[in-house]
Amino acid sequence: MSNTLLSQLQFSCGTKMKNRFMLAPMTNTQSHEDGTLSDDEYKWLVMRAKGGFGLTMTCASHVQAIGKGFPGQLGIFSDQHIEGHKRLVDGIKAYDSLAVIQLHHAGMRSPKEVIQQKSVCPSESEKHNARALSLTEVHQLRDDFITAAVRSQKAGYDGVEVHGAHGYILTQFLSSQINQRQDGYGGSLAKRARLLFEIVDGIRAACGPKFLLGVRLSPERFGMQLHEVKIISQQLIDAHNIDFIDLSLWDVFKLPEEAVHQNKTLLEHFAELDFKKTKWTVAGKINTGEDVAKILNAHVDFVSIGRSAILHHDFPKQVIDKPNFTPTELPVSETYLQNEGLGPDFLTYMKRWPNFVVE
Questions:
Q1: Distance of CA 225 to the CA centre of its chain
Q2: What domain range is 19 assigned to?
Q3: Nearest to 153 by CA among 240, 64, 213, 96
Q4: pLDDT tens figures, 250-309
Q5: What's the CATH code of the domain at 259?
């Protein structure tokens, strides 16, 4: 098993990943309010690169100021952010880890108290106090995702991941429940997926064939339908020249929520896709060394680690050394998490997770 974990993975763009561990992009609320990098954010991410992750991904980084999803979010919507990102990239790459930034826009999930105005959405949402984007604004959103990727490339990142999951703005466009537009970006699945595809194609054209490009999708919640997400995934593979798909499944071992698809697990559903040269990873309760083995044995190319990466900055090294490694039991103390590189704001955020931090 350790041979597989340590085996190099080469993406179709030519980029090589030293092992099969990716740090999942995680909300941590510890950068500066203007989106610039903080020392706490730097420490948290670079410590994971040092801990053996073959790919270290940032938290969701917003491509427009109005797309900010949480306090202390790392930004990539302005050139003023480049200096901090260059520092972060250098720190990650010093440990032979790929540096990848996740491009994000929260859409209707941008809290009013954070952005100081109404949030935006494909269609008006009274529930979320969100206004509909004009067609001009949709085109600007597309262009700002692409510009953010170019900015990321200038900062030295090996690649980007486009965040199309978890109910954020690209999910909102994909969702037939949320997206009620009557123009070329709403209606049929092809029209609802148009913005995502235009962003992906635009990034590839602007950043070139050797830039690592991935997309994160989630198959459930926020009006997403499993069969549609499988169609979109296959279309990304077949026609849009991406290097990897990152599937956030909430729980990689569970059955789908939709009764009609409960003949197999979510993981088994996506394993049916023809990935061709595109690599794939999954996230969702991959907590132990045994879990990692199960996922890789299911022919997933690499694993995306969240909770266990918070508990152990060196989770990859631990699993490589001890394939049956089990993380420390919860809850853990604040001191424990501080020693694992979490800053004060991240600690406060983690207290929102049930039974994670000792009261």
A1: 19
A2: 2-327
A3: 213
A4: 899 999 998 889 999 999 999 999 999 999 999 999 999 999 999 999 999 999 999 999
A5: 3.20.20.70
